[in-house]
Design brief:
Strands 1, 2, 3, 4, 5, 6 and 17 form a 7-stranded mixed β-sheet that branches. Strands 8-15-9-10-11 form a 5-stranded parallel β-sheet. A 5-stranded antiparallel β-sheet has the order 18-19-22-21-20, with helices on both faces. The chain is 32% helix and 24% strand. The chain is built from 15 helices and 22 strands.
Length: 461
Amino acid sequence: MQYDLIIVGWGAAGFSAAIRASEITGEEMKIALIGKGNIGGTCVNVGCIPSKFLIEKSLRINDILYNSNGVSKAELFSEVMKELKNTVYKSRVGKYEDVIKNYKNVDLYYGEASFLDNRNIQVKNANNTHILRGSYIIISTGSSPTIPPFANLNDIKTSDNFWDIEVLPEKLAIIGGGPIGLEIGQAMRRFGTEVSIFEIANEILPGYSEEIQSAARNIMQYDGIQIHTDTKIDNITSEKSKCIFYGNNKECFDEILIATGRYPNTATLNLQAAGVQTDSKGFIITDRKMKTSSEGIFAAGDCVSGKLKLETLSAREGVIAVENIFGYGKEIDLNATPWAIFTTPNIAGVGISEHDAIQKGLLFDKRVIDASSAIRNSISGNKYGFAKILIERTNRKILGIEVISPEAADFIVEGVYALRFGLTVDDIIDSTHIFPSHSEIIKMAAQSFKRDINKMSCCME
C-alpha cells in the first residue's frame, strides 16, 4: 500500500504530525499511522494524565477526608485509582480516538512495525501482515521504563503499570530518585504510605543543579520520605512481601516501583535496513530539523536522542518534522523548551544550567534568591524554594532560569519568552508583575542583579 506519509508511533508526536500534515494539505495527504498498545502513547495512558491526576487528588486529600463521613485514606485511595482509570479512558477516547476519526485521510494500523528498507515498512499483528510504502516516514515510537537486571516484573511496578494498584500500600520503595520517583513518592506519602526512595547517585535528581538537588531533598524529607542516596540495589526478591537487598541491608515493602529511566522503543524497528543511525542506547539521532541520517525519514518524541523527554516537546518535534517535509525550514529550539517536575512546590526551569554554561566557556553572572523573598510564599506557607537566573555578562541576556515554587510549572513560561526573544534581565525588571504572586519571585531574582532585595519595599520597581 502506497502512502504519502507513514508515521510509526501513535503517541503525542505521531498524532501531532498526522494532524499538522492533514492541516497543511487540506486533508489531501494520504497518511498511515502505525501503533501498538493503547492509542495515545505514554502521556495519556501511563504518564502525564494518571500521574498528575494522582498528584492533584493527593493535594486535596485532607479536604476530601473532611467531607467524606469517616472514609479512611485506604478506602479513598481505592476510589481515586478507579477514578484515575476512568479519567485516563475518557482522555484517550476524547483526545485521541475521537480526534483521529475527524481525519479521513489517515489510516490506522495496529501492529509491530519493522523497516524492510528506507521506504517500505512491514506491519505485523496476530491476524495480518501489511507492507506499506511511504514517500516520507516519521518515527515516533516513544520509550519504555528501564528494568534493571536485578528486578523481576512479577515483583515490581513501573511507571507503566503502577496505575493498576488498587490497595493502598503501607510501605512503598521507589528505586530511582528522578522526577517520576519524586512525584509519585510525594503523592503516595500524602495518602499515608511510608515511602523510601533509593538512588544510586550521590543525590536525588541527578543531573540537575546543586540548588535543585538540595531543595528537593529538603522537600521530600520534610514530607517524611526516606531518602537513600549512594545506594546500589543488589537484588529484589518476592517472599511474603517484596524485599530489597542493598549492601548488608534487607528491607521489605508492600510495593516496589522502578523509576530508573527509560529506553527507546526502537529495538524491533530494524533501523539498519533503513539506514537510520542511533546513539549507544538506541535513541535515534536527528538534526534540529528532526531529520535522521536517512533521506526522507524523520524522527520525533521520546525515541529521539536528547536530554529532555517531554510530552509537549514530542508534539512540537512531530509538527516540525512535518513542516520540514514541506520545506518550512523549521528547527527545534531546545534552549527555550521549559521543563517541570510536579512536586509540591513545583520544580521548573528553562534555558541552560550553570554547569552547561561553564562547559561552553560562557562568561555569565548569576543570582539566587530564597523563596521567602516573595511574600506570597510566606502567605501560602511554602518553606522551601528559590529562583535562580543566569545572564550573559556582556549583554545581560537571559541564559537560564530555575525556580522552585508553588505554580512554577505555570509561570516558567515567562522564561521561555525571555529566551526565545532574546530579552535581558533589565527587560524583566522593567515589566510589572502581579503582587502578591508566586511568579513575582522571577522579577525579584532579576532585581537582585541591580540592588540588595533585602532593602526593598513591596512592589519596588
